Amino acid sequence: MTKKLDLALYALSAVFALVTALTSTLLPHRAWGAVAAWGYLTAALLVYLVQRRDLLAWATWGAVALLPLVIQSVQRAGGRTDRAQEEVLVVEHMGESLLHSGTPYLSRTEIAAIPLDERLLGYRPYQPGMSLFGVPRALAGDHWFTDARIWFAIMTLVTLGAAVTLVRSLPTPSAVRPTRSPFKLLRSTAPVSQAPAPEASGPVAPVSPALVRAIQAATVLPVTALTLATGGDDIPVLALCLLALALAATGRPGWSGLAVGAAAACKLFALPVVAVLVVHAVATGTWRRLLPGALGLPLLALLPPLLVDADALIENVLRFPLGHGLVTSPARSPFPGYLISQSLPGGRYIAVGLLVSAAAVIGFLLLRRPPRTAYSAALFCGYGLLTAILLMPTTRFGYLLYPVALLLFAPVLSKDTGSSAPRHDTALYRH
Q1: Helical H runs in 208-346?
Q2: How confident is the model at residue 28 (pLDDT cuts 50, 70, 90)?
Q3: Domain count of the fold of the chain
Q4: Are residues 274 and 353 in the same domain?
Q5: pTM of structure
Q6: Could you identify which of 148, 192, 198, 385 might form a hypothetical disulfide with 91, taking C-beta atoms 3.0 to 4.6 angstroms apart as the criterion?
């Protein structure tokens, strides 16, 4: 069954890439599809020939994400202006502004001075940490290896590789069981220990089917591979969130706080993961070790822009995302929140009200039944982000990569040890 699922994944992804290459109105996407289609097709042909499914997934990632990324970076350095999405330019401009002015943001006055058809690129709606990916180009000039996407990919490879290595050190559950709802899981009132897993002895255990599926979600799914090759800014943030959960699962709350704090220092999308891990740390008594990194890093990243030009920071990270900038965001994927905001009288306020109500319900459940395992924390993060993406008045289809990867990563975070109740123990689900 697992081989059949792999075959379906790679074959359907090849079709998606081919359709993208032939029909997309975005030139970087078409260029990605023209290369990735061959990578997915090759992976589909090798499914029954390669025994190590995880190695095939990593190799496919190289063919459908890293190779198109490098090709587009080289072509862009050679003069092609249609080989990167706008967010790549924005991140690189952030790095340049950081070096020259001490803040990655332009003020409202500076943005207003930009010609109207280019004004959108004047906004930098990311957290200050994202500007670090643009520093290489600001320092060394226009080369393929200074493209921000190259550094997104390097960060992703390192953090995702570390996350996979960590979860492989967890003891293998005694049996494969279906993923349970976080709301059933959280009926437990007794904390579950997150003690470090003992060192494995003997040969390394084979990679579980659940972990292979998690790797595929974070690397070779078209929404993930396409994003990294053409834009990329979400992928290292996602990888850092997965690493933070893996570190929490293996009893390293201090390092977990640093990982999720680094993610939040780059993008606001990581803040729900910060919130869930903070509640998890309070529930398990590890908050003193997690909080310095989880909250300290984002706050530390905000300090220089606040001191240089606080209003520029507010204009970029608050006013613009909330629709009060000089131009509006082009994010208009047809999810319920966007459709409601566009089709009903006062629709934007209705969509915002639904979003706030959903956040309140999730927050209540989070506090009423706090996650005591990294597994349940990952489920809370995945379902919470999925709800937010569906109800936000302005959002992008590509943001779905966050909940998909988090929900598929959750099963590999559970473990059966002497210090944690096994998931098949019904005592875990008693009132």
Answers
A1: 209-219, 222-230, 234-249, 253-264, 271-284, 287-314, 336-343
A2: very high
A3: 2
A4: yes
A5: 0.87
A6: 148
